[in-house]
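thread: overnight batch results

M.L. [08:02]
morning all. the overnight job finished for the chain we discussed friday. pasting input first so we're all looking at the same thing
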Amino acid sequence: MPNLSDSRIGQIAIVCKDVARARDFYKDALGVKHLFDAGPTLAFFQSGTTRLMLSKAEGEATGTSVLYFFVSDIEATKKELAGKGVKFIDEPHMIAKMPDHELWLVAFRDSEGNMMALMEERR
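M.L. [08:03]
and the structure it wrote out:
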C-alpha cells in the first residue's frame, strides 16, 4: 500500500493539559462512548469507527492531534513511504497485546513536523 488514500483513520490522539478533565468532558458533555483508561495519562473513546485517545502532552508533543492510519502490513507500508521521502521516527513495534490481536505502531512526521503514525492490528 504505497499511499494512504484508502486507509481508514483508526485513531486520533488528542493532546490534553488535564486528561481527567478532558475525559469527563468527552464522556459527560459530548456523550462519546468511553472505552477505558490506561493509567492517569490516557483515556480511550469510540466515536463511530474512529477511536479517540486522550493523552497528556509529553516530550516532543506540539499540542497537535496525531492521525493514526490503519494499514494491513506496517513494514511494507513503512518501506514504501520511506522510499518517497517520509521520515520515520522509529521502527514498527508492538505497543499492546490485546485479547484478540497485537497492536503495532510506527511514527513519522509530516512535512510540517506534525507527528503521524501507521497502525496495524495483527491477529
